Amino acid sequence: MLAQTARTSGRLWSMTARVFAAKGPLLLLLFLLGWAGYHVTTLACGTVAPRVPWLVFPLMGLGCLIQLSVTLVAYRTSIETAEDAMGMVREERMDLVSLISTMMIPFAAAYSAFGFMTQYAKDALLASDAMLGDLAHQSFLLAVSPIESRRTLIITIAAFVALWLATRGVKFLAEKAHATYLSLLATFLSSCSTFLVLFSVFRVYEQLSFWARDRVFMQWWNDALAWAGSLVRINLPLIVDTGWGWLVSTAWPVFWSVLSQPVLWLAVVALVAGTSLPAIDTVRSAVSSRLGSDYDTKVATVLTAATSERAPGFLRKIVVPFLHLLGVILTAGIPFLCALIVSYTALEWVETWLTYLVNKAIGPVGPKMVLLLGPLQDIVSLALAPCIAAVLLSVAYAQLKQAENQAAMPARTTVPSMDSATSRRMTRSPGSQSRRIGVSVVIVLVSLALAIGMSRLTPPSPDATIEMTMDTPAMVMDSEITLSNVRIGRFLSMSSGFGEPEILFSRGVFVVATVSVYADQNLFSRADLRASSEVYATVEGTGSVSSTPGFVTTRDLVFEVPLSSLDDLVLRATTAQNVTSTVAWGTLRIPPDTPVAREVSASSVVIKEGR
Predict the structure, then answer these.
(1) Domains detected in the chain
(2) pTM
(3) In Å, how far are 49, 61, 135, 147, 487 from 204, measured between CA atoms?
(4) What is the mean pLDDT for each group of 10 consecutive residues in the chain (611 residues)?
(5) Best label site of 54, 123, 432, 593, fewest CB within 10 Å?
């Protein structure tokens, strides 16, 4: 089986190279069109977001439609080329417009699940900051956020209902008139409603995140865990923190990115290829043979309801076929699955390092240059890597389909399938079966180790570092930043300029630093505190200082850190430029012998002084 896994991997990559050699230029051109559409629409959204906020949704819907169209054309081209190269007979497939209309929701779901939609929306908003000044996107978010006012909530709900009804109406007319342009219009309206929902959910999620990170809530949560732990005499806060940290940093990334992503994308590619749903009786027999005849009636009822003509089209045409394809992929055999997961992870690993090299070559750029150089940083992630991934997944689908076809041939056929050893498992002795299981476990563990190892071998940060001195201004990208008056204490006297100061106590310590920023344009600087691999945000969560041209803006930033971190504290500040992934950090190492006072004071008042 080990040799079979190696042969499957070699066949997968050799066929990928063959298909890429045949159609590589065309596929790259398609994905470059998607890359261009991505950045043109982000620039357009950045321009109109603060001025005509509701126009952002149709613009992003158009960008998503462009991205979907070129991706589907590239996938279909790769699939057909792979089938031709492997001598397979092409299946009859739906026309491209119908495919785009059908695949809009699955692609939007896949892109949303793996962060593409979120990054797209984020880049569009941050483009407005780069073109129109920092925090320009805030006016857009305030205008369209359903949690800001009841009026906006009503408008959002009404807009979603109107878009949904318009989509259904246009789809109905398109089916009656068989009009291509109406099908595309329905897909465009569906894309607009998708982004409307995404922005609304994002604002709600953001609000919940701020609440969950609030110091009062965290204190309440820690006290509740400590009380519950005292009942059973265990350190429950430590156990919860350790378990949650392992789940978030290790278990979930491995499951979601390493294991789930290639399998889910392969199922989407199979939908693009037009793989049909097998007969209900076939699926019912397979399930009944595994679960027993007691489940026969229940399975038949569910499948009949899900695939009948009266079932919703999305359920009948997308959900049930997708779940079936997912099941086919997961039962394709250990060699195939291991080869797919390791190959896809290796591709992502190469993409990560190529992106790092591009970012390192470009280096930190200010807001005036980021819109010119920023798109170059996405060449790898939006054009080259998706192009190779499309070919890899298409070849994997073709091999899976070929193995399925071979398995369905009469018994006299001698052509071996991808996992032909599986078909002979019933004739093996118990000892041979045990050895097979042992080899399978070893292959799975080795494949997981390779995939996890590659996913963990990430490149270092491409950010530049500028050493700063206390009370001395330093140019950090386009801002002049000064770090001064660093103090540490167990109690914090926080003044807002109104009434009595608020006294806060920390189980660790408070670190307060005064940050001054000057720039010749409206910019947004941020700071954090780093200790080894840990990064601590400010107590209020933003850590930001907004500059006004001609004025020096000064404010106190407050951090809360454990006592164990005092020996390795580094204060960092930068000009926020989130459109590009490469920035310059001004760093100030806090001396380990800095005295810890009983109480330190800080002010939330922002001071502006003319220069």
Answers:
(1) 464-610 (2.60.40.1240)
(2) 0.73
(3) 19, 21, 19, 7, 36
(4) 76 91 93 90 82 85 85 90 85 75 73 74 72 62 75 85 88 79 82 79 69 66 79 79 76 77 83 59 50 51 52 57 65 80 90 89 74 80 91 89 66 43 47 66 76 82 89 88 92 83 87 90 80 81 77 90 87 74 86 89 86 74
(5) 593
